Amino acid sequence: MRSFLIGALVLGGAAGCRKSSGTEPPPGGWANVAPTVVERAVDREMTQLLEVRQGSLRAWIEVPNVRAKPGDYVLLGQGKARRDVEVPELGQRLSQVVDIAHVQVVDVETARRTVVSQAPKDAVEVGTVYAELSSRADKRIVVYGTVVKVSSAVGWNWVHLRDGTGDVEAGTHDLTVQTKHLVTKGQRAAFSGVLRADVDLGFGYHYDALVEAAKPVDRP
Question: Model confidence over 1-35: pLDDT tens digits?
Fold first, then answer.
């Protein structure tokens, strides 16, 4: 939560968007550590100045105008803080305003699911999964990352996780998890399942690595 107050908050949404059950994260992922609700909104020509609350902490942010209103929930990534900002509309000076490049208004359930938390202590980085695939295959593993893609087929959800490790050109930066659990694109998620190597499901679906029948893991 401290990062929220010292310059966090930037989201992958387009100006003019409204409530959504899905999210498109910015490159760094979401910075929310708890559901974030709008308390006050000041409309400007191209931007909005919003007072937002995460838990018991409040902050002022300036974002592209997404027509947010008090009571709306927003997803936020990282931004830059300005100090001692005069706000003529309020007739006062604010000690800090965080400038946000991206923002998205979402429903409350998405706000609750899409939050940052720490990876489980025993989580294995995506790059390490591929690097140590031969020795880890057919063993239970815990993985953690940002959900970049979700699809449903044959009774399962197929979740693509990335955590910034691995090699993009080699394709070792993206790990697929097979699960019954529902997740949202842009969400941080942790799963425990059996790691399989060289999995061919037919119909052109082949995975160098797949975390099979995975279940969500509680995080600190």
Answer: 334 433 344 333 333 333 443 456 777 677 787 78
DSSP for 148-166?
A: EEEEEETTEEEEEEE-S-S
User: Which DSSP symbol is given to 200?
Assistant: E
Contact criterion met (CB below 8 Å) for 124 and 136: yes
pTM tops 0.85: no
| 13-19-21 Cα angle (round to 5) | 85
Instruction: Summarize pLDDT for 154-196 with one digit per residue, the tens.
Output: 999 999 999 889 999 999 999 999 999 988 887 889 999 999 9
Alpha carbons 92 and 85: distance in angstroms, whole number: 9
Residue 129's closest CA among 147, 142, 146?
Answer: 142
Specify burial of residue 5 (Cβ count, 10 A radius: 0-12, 13-18, 19+): middle
CB 77 within 8 A of CB 28: yes
CA distances in angstroms from 17 to 9, 67, 180, listed in the order given: 17, 8, 30
Q: How far, in Å, CA of 122 to CA of 71, rounded?
A: 38
Determine the Cα–Cα distance for residues 64 and 129; give it in Å rounded to an integer: 39
Asked if residue 211 lies in contact with residue 137, where contact means CB atoms within 8 angstroms, the answer is: no
Phi-psi region of 208 (alpha: psi -120 to 50; beta: other; left: phi over 0): alpha
